[in-house]
Queue: 3 jobs
Job 1
Amino acid sequence: MKEWGNPPSAAEDVLGIVFPADKSFLDDTWGAVVTYEQAGYIADKDANSTDYNKYVEEVQKGEDIENEARKKDGFPSIHLVGWAQAPSYDPARHYLIWARDLRFSGEKDDTLNYDVRLLGRRGFLSVNLVSKMPQLASVRADAASLAAAATFDPGSAYSDYKPDTDKKAAYGVAGLVAAGLGLAAAQKFGLVAVILLFAKKFLVLIAAGFAAVAAWFRKRFSRAN
């Protein structure tokens, strides 16, 4: 988390990070941060009827305040350029994807956050691929493969939901996107349940300067050898 430009709290509840075979965060490649939230069953009726561009506008309005806090903590400022891929939902497989174009101060290439949410009976699995914007095409293909490989155990799938007994989340798919974009957006749209769910996390897992970090480590270890 430190080398990716995130506070240590961003690693809370992270199950693990997936890299391509024979790669690590030292390489110029993507890393997929995996988490799970037992948030309850998330209704998907609003998935494809929401204007997600408004979410981006709200996040951009609150960037100055967020970046002041980041600077005080020694982290680079971030600008959400916009969607690298607008949110879309597959109602047959019950997974949601979106991708953000993020610009870090002092970095040549924009950072790509490619998010996948797989909905289950009692919550959702989150796979957040972190890379650079020039790798969007390859990351999109790899994200699709990861989404296809992940499945819930029998009895825990989205279709196994029992409305009479199971817990239902207080927000839908649109709220899930708002929370993924940041706390400011969730507050703006009145998603109190989302705020409570994500309050202990930094909300955005980001990678600042893959190439710069990798070069620094290679230089350091080459000197040591």
Job 2
Amino acid sequence: MADKSGFFGRLRERLGKTRSGLVTGVMGVFTRHSRIDEEVFEELEEILIQADLGVDTTLALVEQLRDEAREQKLEDPQDLLTLLKNALLTLLREGDHTMVWKAPQGVHVTLIAGVNGSGKTTTIGKLAAHLKADNKSVVLGAADTFRAAAAEQLTQWSERVGVPIIKDQEGADPASVAHDAASAAVSRAADCLIIDTAGRLHTKVNLMEEIRKIERVLGKQIPGAPHEVLLVLDATTGQNGLQQAKHFAETLSVTGIVLTKLDGTAKGGIAVAIQKQLGIPIKFVGVGEGVDDLQPFDPKEFVDALFASE
């Protein structure tokens, strides 16, 4: 993807809200105490939970820090910072964060899911732009036929990026649109097909069933499709986003998370909670409106940006 070198700077800058809460809080704990004691760990727990790492994730991390501090006979609270960064990095590195964008045979199909307002359609547009810049041919499928503006918004992206879009009228059968999009992608010998789906509320069982139908339709037309199922989550929703992810993961074979709007939240720790509690790797992170503000997730860059000095 383009502009990777400049992305670290933007990531560091736009994680400022999370950093001001998390890192400032953590450093405050370490400087207030002259030695490692139980009070240090209790204060650390509170700060990590506030940064939305979640109770379960926080308790596991702090217990790990306790054990390591004991084993290494550490006394200075400042030494816990290195342990914390390493623990977060180890956790975030779990799973496969890479996107290959190449199918074993034929068109590579990516299904995009997520609730309304998560940044789903915009994410599709940005992914298409990056793929086009990498000289890949892309077809978009507008299978969100419930929201009138959805196909319109995706059409604007298709025109902006210069890739074809397959769509139907509002209220059309989404699986039928997915079928037509797959047929078009095959006939054009496209490299990639990206399918948008309705911004389902995760509590609506019938809508979740429908997205499974789309999966089945795609699989009949293109071997192994969908090859990726990306769930777009809005980082500003915090723990609610984690609950959404759990529901989607119970219904779909989610292969990766796209975490958007990290620039607008003090709760960027949700990235850690998602990885720990769901075991679904984060594939992309978004920190702004620009096309290059969506980039592949790099665990080390994320942790470095989170703890970078101002």
Job 3
Amino acid sequence: MAATLFLRNADPLRPPEAPGLGRGLLFAVIAHAALLAALSAGVQWRTKAPPAFEAELWSAVPQAAAPKEVIPPEPEVEPEPAKPQPKPAPPPEEVQAERDAEIAIAKAREQKIKREQEAKRLAEEAERKKQLAAKEKLEREKEEKLKQAKLEKEKLDKQKQAKESKEAEARREAKLEAQRQENLKRIQGMAGASGGANATGTALKSSGPSASYAGRIMARIRPNIIYNGAPSGNPVAEVEVRVAPDGAIISRKLLKPSGDADWDKAVLRAIDKTETLPRDTDGRVPPLMVFSFDPREQTL
């Protein structure tokens, strides 16, 4: 050990040993020796056998002993019944006959099943045809009803159109008749005529105005015309005049212009200025009159 330590210390490059290494190793050896002694003492203590004790129990009350077990005798084994002897095999003719009978029964059963299936198919086919016929019948009835309703609607529409056309024609005829009557009244001057409803004349009254009445009216209006122009061509102005029963002028309207605007305005201003027309010899005044004014006329 000293040599080892010497060799270790002789190496200058080896790090120095930790201090107290030998003392620690000694303490470890002592501790392991003490542990081994303690384990040995424990094993020897457990190897000693414990003392044994006995106890005898007695019943406090007397009791009777149970009966002795009785073993029943073994049952007698019954003899096995005798096995039936196998029947002798039937002859081949009987086997073939039975086989033919089974085949015939199977064929009959198969034919019966086929007949039942065919009858079921025919019944289903008949039921399907019946349902199809009923459906077609319903569709035909529905189409017939729709067709009838369409015809009825067309008939009503035609009647309505005929009625509307008839009413329109009646309205048109009434309108034309009203226009015709209005034109007739306008032509005949029935608005102020004194004839009967069936009269066919065209004058305002049966006797007509006097011969001098028109001149008297023109003599009343013409002095009120103020016109400084020079007429050219044929400038005649036609004016419609509506008059009240007392002779007062209600309105005037230029029916036909003369072509000279100044002359037309002068005539209308003269009528407005006149205001009242004279009565006829019978004391009446026609309600509607038409006058022609020509600037070339120098006298009434």
